[in-house]
Amino acid sequence: MSDFAIKVEGLGKKYLLQHQAAGRRYVALRDVLADKAKSLFGNRKPEIGNRKSVEEFWALKDVSFEIKQGEAVGIIGRNGAGKSTLLKLLSRITEPTTGRIRMRGRVASLLEVGTGFHPELTGRENIFLNGAILGMRREEIKKKFDEIVDFAEVEKFLDTPVKHYSSGMYMRLAFAVAAHLEPEILIVDEVLAVGDAQFQKKCLGKMQDVSQKDGRTVLFVSHNMSAIGELTQRCVYLEAGKIKAAGVTPAMVQQYLSFAVGQGGIFQSQSTQSPRVDRVEIKTSRANQVQISGEPMEIHFTIEHGGPRKAMCFSFQLINQFGAPAAHCWIYDQDQPMCREDSRTVLKCRIPKLHLNVGIFYLRTYLSEPPGGHHFETLEVPLSFEVSIVDQHTLFGWRPDACAYLEEFNWEVA
Amino acid sequence: MNELVIEAGKTERHYWADLWRYRELFFFLSWRDILVRYKQTVIGILWAVLRPLLTMIVFTVVFGRLAKMPSEGLPYPVFVYVAMLPWLFFSSALAEASNSLIINANMISKIYFPRLVIPASAVIVCFVDFLISAVILAGLMAWYHVLPGWRLLCLPLFTVLALLASFGISLWLSALNVKYRDFRYIIPFIVQFGLYVSPVGFGSAVVRAKCGDLVYQLYGLNPMVGVIDGFRWAVGSDVPLNVSGLFTSVAITVLLLFSGLKYFRATEKAFADII
To answer: What pLDDT is recorded for position A83?
Structure first.
């Protein structure tokens, strides 16, 4: 017998898309009755143009993979690739149309933190409620109660209704409950995308503990390649409902990011929050998002800051395919006044000589107003570029994992 | 190690075992809703008391004083209140449960659990209201010196019948409500209509006198007729129990319950996709 924890065979999920008159999202009894009545009394055959066309859509098709016990596996892919559908099937929220899933051990899935939290209930009450929703026994919750409260750092507010919590406290409490589940298999969606950077780190650390120290099986979906890189050893790369590739994480991340390279160098935010980074344009030294190490590079950021700001601060990291930040560039209002007028400002960063090693890099941006400690946004920009090296020892096998940064240096041979 | 197999079209297998495993969730959800209900409304428990009490006063005036309906040997307020009790439970259970799945849509699309837990806990919350209002009944009976006999011991049986009838219909309504979003407009109508076809303000003996025996027997097709007649009989009304009518009500309740369960489970699988 093999030692798999999750075995997926020929999994598929079909949805029926009904192309109906615009504005109708749900089936209404009224329409059903009207249609029935029409077909009952009307002798004429329904006109072709009148008929609703029903289209089949396979959100997931013929997906098979196996995950061994104690493995941490990432699921990556663009939006709409079927990641969420896969998680929903694994968590038994919906039923597969074809195929089979076998799972060994207690499964807990975390598609969202704080599901079932009720704003009127106190922190204490919500811990019990949420624990029960996540499948913990009452005894278990009691045993872990102090640990949970400790992790969430909310001792003082335990008996306050959570509607009075700050969003940060709310998130911490919600994650804390989830983090103390003790399943053999943990399925996690992109829940880490929320909360402040420090807390994200804490969550990531906790998840790392779960998979590495406790030897549990973790299935993790994220767009955050650095989190994927840190947490998982293997990845399944989904595209259009099918497995495009599967293998060790660095190779998969590279493949995923190199796909993004083909996307062109412009990112336009869909977010409506303000302030935010609204647009990012990477101008590499060569076409097709190829940057030659040692050549200049420019990145333009359009900041939407919703009115004049007094002390904005913006910075970004260049992160390599292993999730390691290789460079950090920043601009502070106190050094160079910005965002003081209007509501949109374009910041152009010019890097005269990009000293990065070969590989694929992407950006993470931070937008804040430091005097009040106000952090607006951390953004994983879904753009990447490829750094290559020309005219430099082509015989030398340049490898992305040799280093992250290429220093300028001089030698003297004495 | 226990192995879980999820296969297309075969998720039904563990259903009842799962329902048992998730009993704590059922408990917690009911507890949450009860807690929230009495936390949110300022008058809290008073609401559970005032609603039947005020309705009882209105009905006593309209049916007892103005229409001068017979009250089966009970003081009119007791006569009305004892019917009001199961009726209000039934109608609020219907209203609450039918919306319960929609209200908890977020949970349904994010977490697995037997969905049956949700309408069931909605019914239980209304049942707590029912128990609170029942205390008033005891007070009313003491005030009017109505001495219940051994028949009162049968009251729990009729309560169970009310509970099952409410749950059966709730299963239908909650599932239909997910599937057809305009169904919720029909529910207040059903509840209102139901009040007129149930013997709340008047006794079912009136129906027999005016419409004849056949209608009286068929009247039991409304499951609340059996429940309400039973409640009145248990506190000492002088009309003998309509046994065949009661059996009709019981049969209808069982039918509703099983068909409701069947329909609910058939549609349940798709809830997360369409909610």
So the answer is: 86
A234-239 and A242-248: which strand pairing?
Answer: antiparallel
C-alpha A170/C-alpha A107 separation (Å) is 24
CB contact under 8 A, A120 and B110: no
pLDDT at B90: 95
- Strands B3-7 and A98-104 turn out to be antiparallel
pLDDT at residue B40 in the model:
67
Q: Whole-angstrom Cα distance, residue A13 to residue A385? A: 34
* A93 with B28: Cβ contact below 8 A: no
**Cα A281–A287–A292 angle (5° rounding)?**
90
Cβ contacts (< 8 Å) between B1 and chain A: which residues? 104-105, 184
Contacts with A106 from chain B: Cβ below 8 Å: 2
Do A297 and A353 contact (CB within 8 A), yes or no? no
Nearest to B111 among A89, A106, A115 (CB): A115
Nearest CA in chain A to B7: A100
Q: What percent of chain B has pLDDT over 70?
A: 96
Whether A80 and A122 share a structural domain: yes
**Nearest by CB: B269 against A95, A120, A135:** A95
Final residue belonging to a domain, choices A260, A279, A312: A260
Please, are residues B92 and B126 in contact by the beta-carbon 8 Å criterion? Answer: yes
Show residues of chain B in contact with A116, CB under 8 Å: 32, 104, 106-107, 111
Total number of domains constituting chain A: 2
The pLDDT, as a whole number, for residue A48 is 44
Q: Tell me, what's the pLDDT at B37? A: 82
**Does B68 contact chain A (CB < 8 Å)?**
no
Q: Measured between CB atoms, which of B5, B113, B186 is closest to A102?
A: B5
Q: How distant is the alpha carbon of residue B134 from its chain centre? A: 14
Could A121 and B272 be called an inter-chain contact, meaning their C-beta atoms sit closer than 8 Å? no
Task: Select, from the ranges A26-40, A161-175, A220-234, B228-242, the one with the highest average predicted confidence (pLDDT).
Answer: B228-242
A97 and A128 part of one domain: yes
Q: How is residue B273 written in tokens?
A: 């996709």
ipTM over 0.90: no
- The structure tokens listed for A247 are 């293998």
Nearest CA in chain A to B34: A121
The verdict on a CB contact (< 8 Å) between B24 and A184 is: no
Question: How confident is the model at residue B127, as a pLDDT?
Answer: 93
Contact B39 A120 (CB under 8 A): yes
For residue A6, the SS3 value is: strand
One domain for residues A229 and A138:
yes
From A210, A227, A260, the end of a domain falls on: A260
pLDDT at residue B233 in the model: 92
With respect to residue A364, please indicate whether it lies within any of the assigned structural domains: yes
The whole-angstrom distance between B9's CA and the closest CA on chain A is 7
In-domain check, residue A52: no
Q: Which domain holds residue A368?
A: 264-396
Q: Report if pTM > 0.95.
A: no
- From A181-195, A338-352, B169-183, the region with the lowest mean pLDDT: A181-195
- Lookup: tokens for B105: 């849509």
